[in-house]
Design brief:
Blueprint (H helix, E strand, L loop, with lengths): L1 E7 L7 H6 L2 E8 L2 E9 H11 L5 E5 L5 E10 L6 E8 L6 E10 L3 H6 L2 E4 L3 E6 L9 E5 L9 E3 L10 E2 L6 E6 L16 H27 L1
Parallel strand pairs: 1-4, 2-6, 7-10
Antiparallel strand pairs: 1-3, 2-3, 4-5, 5-6, 7-9, 8-13, 9-12, 11-13
Length: 226
Amino acid sequence: MTYLKAKTRKVLGRKNRGLRSEELIPGVLYGHDVKNKNLSVKKSDFLKIYQSAGSSRLVDLQIEEDNPVKTLIQSVQTDPVKDEIIHVDFYQVREDEKVTTKVELEFINEAPAVKELGGILVKNYDEVEIECLPKYLELIDKIKVDLSSLKAFNDAVHIKDLQVPPEIKITESLDEAVAFIAEPEEEKVEVPAAEAPSEPELAEKKGKEAEEVEGENNEKNAEKKQ
């Protein structure tokens, strides 16, 4: 379990910029039968928590002097220009109610079809959605995807092949391919087209042809005069 301290936030909207200048991140807490609470957390504290917990680990969130509540980091908004976190949503969970969240995939071992056949490894997923009771989230950090079974072109690892504890359910379609081996594309050798004659060359050719025609006409006229 991870612990994070928060403060009640009274400023809203654009006034949140003042919080960010103080190295605070505005956020909100909500959940099933839970009244929304606006809050702020220290940027440095949150970054440490987020790097270790991500969105799949429970966080004990304490607002002011209230009792800590179990939450998930539900959503993180970032500034597209500065690439900085500007808002965070915490979802308060109930111990008797299942939650859904995303878990990162970890690809392990090398696919023989890549090493021996020159195949291309195509990854369709880098995370999958799971469902379980909150207490079982501690059982899983990342889901390993073993690539050693991919020995030929079109071989694939499917969602149904992923190994997770029985208390955890992957909600993605079981027949979806997590990763597969594609055949390498054949390089097309372009045959250079015959170069078209340049304008000066065409003019010279036409000039010679005109001279030949003119010469023939002159010879015929001379013969007639004789």
